[in-house]
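Anyone able to model this chain together with adenosine-5'-triphosphate?
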Amino acid sequence: MKKLLTGLQPSGELTLGSLIGGISQSVKYQDEYDSYIFVPDLHAITVEQDPEKLKERIRKNVGLYIACGLDPKKNTFYIQSENLYHANLSWILECNSYMGELSRMTQFKDKSKKVKNVSCGLFTYPVLMAADILLYDADLVPTGIDQKQHVELARNLAERFNHKYGDTFVVPEPMIPTLGAKIKDLQEPTKKMSKSSDNYKGTILLLDSEKDIRKKIMSAVTDSDNKIYYDEEKKPGISNLITIYSVLTKKSIKEVETHFKDYNYGNFKKEVADVVVKVLIDIQNKYYKIVESGIIDKILDEGREKTIKIAKNKYEEVLNKVGLGR
Ligand code: ATP
Ligand code: LTN
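re: yes, here you go
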């Protein structure tokens, strides 16, 4: 069985964007792939984090992954920092990465503009991501479009290493969803809806109350021509709401446009809100049951044991090939 691997940073509360662009992709593939879903907490500290909130979110995210439909029987869940091989392999890969290629990473360029002190970790972030992937011989890496360049770097590093030291790593394939690849911020619909954004009104959190979800969608920024059709450039706000509705109802953009042909913006938004509320309240009910059942730690303990064994094997193979240790 082929392997799928992905993770979502615990750098903020999970959003509707995380669900559509991230988690749902893995849900779709969980029957076909041996799936590894982890919490990249080491990646989260490449920018400033509040330690208490970070710790709380790590467990919470795993609960949410499961509530969103990732079945613990079909997926292995684990925490990156609990497996020391990730950071260790990352170092070896860093020694086989070039400043030039890392400097070209779009996410680094964007994020480094936003922080006062740019950490070295932010710069080498994609190499750690490559280590996450290559340790497990992952074939498929579902991610949003913004992470594609990082998966491509992982491919390059795998090929470079294989060429230099002999066949060691599987060269992974990125998997980018075609629709809903980017869910936009409701207040600034040209920007991605992001969990590390401080714009609370523009971001729908998976654990938002029904009242907040409705309020945020009803006050989403649109335009003034009161016509509902998809045009990302001229009508980014309306197009974003169409995308959200389309993904959650599994209807095509054309079908959604036809459905809302005679609606005004108010009624349109109300119906989009109904759909989002239905999906998220269902996830929330499941989430609170999972938390109450206390199974999250058991799942993570099992995941840790299993993945440490796999990672150790690969890491020792790498050490040998590179000529490290005895
Ligand atoms: P941050 O703002 O901290 O960078 P993020 O909200 O972009 O975080 P990530 O953890 O980087 O979230 O992303 C997890 C996965 O979900 C990635 O594959 C990412 O591309 C996808 N994703 C996140 N937000 C969205 C969005 N708004 N639309 C589509 N996909 C998204
Ligand atoms: N950088 C990714 C999270 C991430 C990841 C990975 C995703 C870290 N390591 C390995 C896939 C595979 C993000 O921000 N979404």
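The longest strand covers residues 34-39.
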